[in-house]
Amino acid sequence: MLKVYRNLKGYIPHICAIVVLIFIQVLTDLYLPTLMSDIVNTGIMKNDVSFIIHEGGLMLGVAGIGIACAILASLIGSRVSIGLGSILRSKIFRQIERFSLREFDQFGSSTLVTRTTNDIVQIQTVTVLIINMMLRAPLTAIGGIILAYRQDSSLTLIFAVALPALVIVVALIMTRAIPLFKKVQGKLDKINLVLRENLTGIRVIRAFNRINHEEKRFDTASNDLTSTYIRVNQIMAFLMPVLMLLMNAMQIAIIWFGSTRVDTGSLNIGALSAFIQYASLILINFIMMSMMFIFIPRAQAAAERVTEVLEVKPDIVDPESPQKSVTGNGYLEFRNVSFRYNGAERSALTGVSFLAKPGETTAIIGSTGSGKSTLANLIPRFYDVENGEILIDGVDIRKMTQENLRSRIGFVPQKAILFTGTIKDNMRYGRENATDEEIIHAAQVAQASDFVGEMKNGYDTLLSEGGLNLSGGQKQRLSIARALVRRPEIYVFDDSFSALDFKTDAKLRAALSNETENSTVLIVAQRVGTVMSADRIIVLDEGTVAGIGKHEELMKTCEVYREIVSSQLSEEELA
């Protein structure tokens, strides 16, 4: 929690104001019983109406000041709490944006969403309570004990029995509840994961008629969370009745022993009245502190989860003294590159070396799991290589800033991702200052202008989340157009033509050859027809290079390539 609250440095003046307001409120709370004692002893006992009116008015004024301070402290406390939540959300989001894909794999998107939303709400809630209770309750309780002792020292012995009993009860209940509070957040992650998978995979679920299975899966996660919540609430349900029992027992004891002292003349009625009010203040504030323990354990668990994200040191960071390439043409070279996913038993790539030149098309082909997409993901430095080097124009990409590196690459991922907004907005994701003419030209090259032109609003058509109102082929073409708008030095197409028919594929590649004649083009594909015309074909087999050359050369020299070709093309097509 302390690590989280370090983010409140900018709110120190607000916190100081809250402390002052709470201190004034505590003073008013402690002063009121004294006024009540005076009214009883002087006004009521002596039947002095004017004194009662005067002191009563003073009580109202003091109570009004206390109420005003409480309201102001609450308002400022809420502002501080909301500000802390805003700071934490912003920090987590920016931290996540700096994560490499390895860190994403480590946490998972569902838990990152929970930590950015629910966990921070828990921290905000307990922050308000801490601001309003954590300072006021101890001050009021300590002040109440001191003033009660001044009224009658012997009666304060009752506190020596009641208060330790309160502490023991709270400690016993919390030792049972705190572990369950920590489990709750993990179970929320599970529900978020199941829900996210159902929302994103609804087509597959319906296609395989697995709705009942997913409903049971969600019910299992939901019931697990519910049962944990019930166990926590069952434990916490004992807290308030026991506290109220102790409070009432203490009040009875005070009245019992206090009335005896009044009867003997050792204590006047006004002092007893004030003592009872001080006892009420002490108990109420002890109960308030006890109630804090209901929220603090869960907030502590949430704070630990938030801190865990914030303290991760991303694997991929910019160098302190970045280098820039000299030629700036887009020469891409792999030198003995090896890479292994975190926790994997064997390397995804081993000893990969090749050179891709501007003005040429280099194609990567191989069977499923051969490392094609892994290779593509290493170029924009989504992951860092384990061994070897990846160079652009002779400079190791690890010695460049990530912004400089990625500004030179037009990357089209295997899964076409579009964002909520118009088609123009998505196209300008590649370059913000792109003109309408450049957007239209890129769409024409990507063979997307026909279906965009048929839409009612054309390029101003609003796309739904993830482009769900488009087909797979349409999304792929818009993704390719988005990369073309950028006009980078290096194009990386990671199996970006898989959803296109052969005719559209051929037309798009023909148009691309003219558009990218001065750029380095890297095409990752599984279809032989997509790579046959490439200037250089690299064949991957279980993470290693099985062959490099043109189609005709590989047909003679590479057994792996011949097997891929024969599995896709007929003898007539081969001839």
Number of strands: 12
CATH topology category name of the largest domain: ABC transporter transmembrane region fold
Widest sheet: strand ordering = 6-9-10-3-11-12
The CATH architecture of the largest domain can be given as Up-down Bundle
Main beta sheet strand tally, sense and closure: 6 strands, mixed
Question: For this entry, what is the oligomeric state of its chains?
Answer: single chain
On the 0-100 scale, what is the average pLDDT? Answer: 85
Structural class: alpha/beta
- What proportion of the residues is helical, as a percent range? 55-70%
Query: How many domains, as an integer?
Result: 2
Model regions low in confidence, pLDDT < 50 over at least 5 residues: none
CATH class division of the largest domain:
Mainly Alpha
Silhouette: elongated
Secondary structure elements and pairings:
Layout: H1 2-5, H2 12-44, H3 49-98, H4 101-107, H5 109-116, H6 118-134, H7 136-151, H8 157-200, H9 202-207, H10 211-237, H11 239-264, H12 269-310, E1 332-339, E2 349-356, E3 361-366, H13 372-378, E4 387-392, E5 395-396, H14 402-407, E6 409-412, E7 421-422, H15 423-427, H16 436-445, H17 449-454, E8 462-463, H18 472-486, E9 490-494, H19 502-515, E10 520-524, H20 528-531, E11 536-541, E12 544-549, H21 551-557, H22 559-568, H23 571-574
Helix pairs in contact: 2-3, 2-7, 2-12, 3-6, 5-8, 6-12, 7-12, 8-10, 8-11, 8-12, 11-12, 16-18, 21-22
Question: Key features?
Answer:
single chain; Rossmann fold; 2 domains; 4-stranded antiparallel β-sheet; 23 helices; 64% helix; elongated
